[in-house]
Design a protein that fits this description.
Blueprint (H helix, E strand, L loop, with lengths): L5 H5 L7 H15 L8 H17 L2 H10 L2 H4 L15 H7 L1 H8 L22 E7 L1 H6 L1 E12 L15 E2 L8 E6 L2 E6 L8 E2 L12 E12 L8 E4 L15 E7 L5 E4 L2 E8 L1 H6 L1 E6 L5 E6 L8 E4 L15 E7 L7 H14 L20
């Protein structure tokens, strides 16, 4: 009985590349795999036919021999092609010879076995941690050093983060031989389960470190100083590299993220990078103009000139006396808002002088088009 042409079996042309041949076999193997077609003799036969064709065409030497002599080249010339024979193939041989196909495309449940590259714990990065730190507005203006204290995982000093007792090592799991899973097969049906002896790790620790019970790290109270840069703003987040939880079994440590909360100040407030404050002035100071000295948030003295006829609510700017920018060397401004001090109680003599002044300048306040006009009737007292 003549055998079906291997190219026809895989559905490719004779000029097909190795990549195309592999892709065609994958497609057929997935379609006719016994696990997807239980007790189906036709699918089983086609599955074996595809494997037989791929076993030859995937090898450049065997493919060349097949192209020259066809199936007879393997039957009569003693070639090293398909040594199984189409009817005598073993499923185990197929899975073993083409493990790269089944592991990469189907996964472990289709006959592939996953072997750990090395016996032992896989290093894992530690978790990132978060904490809040409070600073005053003055501290955010100047910059400050703050104590940070917290609990986090650090590498175990007894075993240097290895998790095993000194002089011992980890062992390959004898139950699964380091695979982490145990394979079961019932006829053509195969499946796998996580190994209960090693919980899927592929290894066991016969002699765990007494300091960390084999966990490679312990929890410890830590305290250190962190520099809060000048110009820091409310809600800013600082990353402290490597100050999070230590990694597991030699993995890298996580980071600590500090959220900065800036407390409100009674005299100053921040708007963008500007430092804003209010200065209280008397009516004569606003009318006649004056020169005053104020104290900035950093306790330095600033001389401020109040122009004649300065209205209440006027903004006076002193350049580059505000907050430092976290990006670059620029600085915000110091913004001073004027406010008129209105006394609630006046001596009788002062009250009379104020009435006399009012009579001399009048009560007409219609200079501004943007204000509504009030008609004066009388003083209340």
């Amino acid at each position: 009985m003549s055998k079906k042409d291997y190219y026809e079996t895989l559905g490719v042309t004779k000029s097909a590349s190795q990549t195309e041949i592999k892709a065609a076999y994958r497609k057929l193997a997935l379609k006719h795999h016994p696990d997807r077609n239980p007790n189906n003799k036709e699918s089983e036969s086609k599955f074996k036919e595809a494997a037989s064709a791929y076993e030859v065409l995937s090898s450049p030497e065997k493919r060349k021999q097949y192209d020259q002599f066809g199936h007879e080249g393997f039957t009569n010339m003693g070639g090293g092609g398909n040594s199984w024979g189409q009817d005598g193939m073993s499923m185990d041989d197929i899975f073993s010879n083409f493990s790269d196909i089944f592991e990469g495309f189907f996964g472990d449940s289709f006959g592939g076995k996953r072997q750990h590259k090395s016996v032992g714990p896989t290093p894992a990065r530690g978790h990132d941690l978060a904490k809040e730190v409070k600073v005053t507005l003055k501290e955010s203006f100047l910059g400050v050093k703050k104590d940070v204290d917290f609990y986090h995982f650090v590498p175990c000093e007894n075993c240097n983060g290895k998790g095993v007792k000194a002089g011992t090592s980890v062992s390959k799991c004898s139950a699964c031989q380091g695979h982490g899973q145990i394979q079961y097969r019932q006829g053509f049906f195969s499946y796998s389960q996580t190994c209960g002896s090693c919980t899927g790790q592929g290894y066991t620790i016969p002699n765990p470190c007494p300091g960390c019970s084999g966990q490679s790290r312990i929890q410890k109270y830590d305290k250190f100083k962190v520099t809060i840069p000048a110009g820091i703003f409310d809600g800013a987040e600082l990353r402290i590299t490597g100050k999070g939880d230590a990694g597991i079994y030699g993995g890298s440590a996580g980071n600590l993220y500090l959220r900065v909360n800036v407390e409100e100040d009674k005299k100053f407030k921040r708007i963008d990078n500007d430092l804003v404050c209010t200065v209280m002035l008397t009516y004569p100071q606003l009318v006649l103009g004056c020169q005053i000295e104020i104290e900035n948030i950093d306790e330095t003295k600033e001389t401020v000139k109040i122009p004649k006829g300065c209205p209440s609510g006027e903004k006076i700017t002193i350049k580059s006396k505000g907050f430092s920018s976290l990006k670059g060397s620029s600085r915000g401004n110091l913004i001073i808002k004027t406010k008129c001090h209105i006394p609630k109680k006046l001596p009788t003599e002062t009250k009379q002088l104020l009435k006399d002044y009012s009579e001399k300048i009048g009560t007409d306040t219609t200079d501004s088009d943007s204000s509504i006009t009030g008609f004066f009737k009388k003083f209340l007292g």
